[in-house]
Amino acid sequence: MTAPIPEASKRQALEAFSAGRLEEAAALYRHMLAQDGTAADLWNNLGVILADLRRPEDSAAALKIAVALRPGYDKPLVGLGSSAYGANRLDEAVRFWGRAIALHPRQDAGIWFNLGVTHQMRGEAEAAARCFDQAERLSPADPLIASQRLLCLNYLDLSGERLLAEHRRFDERFGRPADRLPPAPHANRPDPEKRLRIGYLSVEFREHLGAYFLSPLFEAADRSRFEIVCYSILPDTHADAYTARFKAQADGWRTVGHLNDEGLAAQIRADGIDILVDLAGHSGLNRLPMLARRPAPVQVTWLGYPNGTGMASVDYRIVDSVSDPVGPTDAHAVETLVRLPPPFLCFRPPASAPPVVPLPAGATGVVTFGSFNKLSKITDSTVALWAEVLRRVPDSRLLLKDRPLSDAGTAALMRARFAATGIDPARLDLIGFIKDAAGHLAAYNRIDIALDPHPYNGTITTCDTLWMGVPLVTLAGPRHAARVGASLMAAIGLPELVATTPSRYAAIAAELAGDLTRLMRLRMGMRERLRASALCDEGRFMRNLETAYRLMWQRWCDRRRSDSQSTGG
Predict the structure, then answer these.
(1) pTM, to two decimals
(2) Cis peptide before 455 (omega within 30 of 0)
(3) Which end of the chain is more exposed for a tag (fewer CB within 10 A), N or C?
(4) pLDDT for 207-219, tens place per residue?
(5) Phi-psi region of 310 (alpha: psi -120 to 50; beta: other; left: phi over 0)
């Protein structure tokens, strides 16, 4: 019979681990396991330490021994799921985390959250939403879980009214704390003509979003009338050459990820920001609860999220008349919608893009449809939509590209979803991660016609698609996320590629596939079309945006004077 491991030895190993002396802790656990190799908890702890030491294979081996020794032990299953996720083995991560939850349904909220993110990445939005629901129930005070759940809901076929109600609930929980005093009056001078201090709050001052849409904010701004201060939530480890460029171009720069809401709000007030523009909405590392502290007289949301914030403290949301038609969409927002002349954004084409090549169908003999959108946007309704396109063009193929497709299990799931609609999965070409940006863009040279997902359209992906010469077919729906494609196609003068019904969507795609001469003409003229369009006119866009800023400020000044007169000030 094996002698029990002394408790003092276990405490010594835990103390070394807690103090960050990982190699020492690993050695202590190995020593104990040499005495008793049947202790599942020691194998689990060793697996956790080896993961922290960035030895994933050794970590997984230790965790699997723990599971084999004690099949009902959930902790090593959680660790194995994390290891699989880190290696982009998403199908495996779902299985391990699912087993852990089946053993103990009231797992930590973080496991439910991670499982939701993984389901979302694999294109299983409904399953993801259920996971986020549970994570939110377990951790109701975490605004980032609540935001991630709201982001996920945009992928589903929900009405604008339902989404508004869900977003309002966020404001009720995180936008109006009962123990907070009303914000102090702002000291900003209510002069309609003064040089305005515009604050941009974002985690995207980098290549991903910044290179495409944020550059005009710096380079085409009227600096005689507007001053730019950036509040970067971006961790230093994610900064890149674009971050450095934006920092050099800004009139003021604050790295604020370390500040709590009170500290960040105080910084913005101290900087005298007139108009604060949130560029995240409910995506990523947002700071929406901070906005409830009213650090700026005028608060705006734009660009980073396909919906409103739901927050009473956010005054305006910037859209356009195509993405958000006057009337119905106003009732879907807490914020006042400010409509720019379409489009609501401006695209700077990537300088590293390879040349557009002749029509791929000319070489392959078949038309290839495609989408490089995240799988999270490929909902069941999108699969049904694209399956109908493939049925109407019997010899065509469908190429999908997204990082999770590097995982064999995720790729198999996508093929099975199309097979369930009657489409031969052999007609799908699935591409995973391509590291370099030029290689990613070059993959568009395999597509003849792009298909926009619905009800959550592409944005950056659509701009890339068009720049690589590929025309896009889109279905316009009743809310912003489902109308971005319509806005972008109208901006480049191709409204005829915008459908209003699923049947018409399939018909437009089939008609394009049947006219290779038209396709080639569109393809070879697409870059010039974009260059000449409103989508790429940075000067026009910035004058429209700055006019909107000036009108927002005028309204605040008018209210301030009215309030002053009514109180006898």
Answers:
(1) 0.94
(2) yes
(3) N
(4) 877 778 999 999 9
(5) left
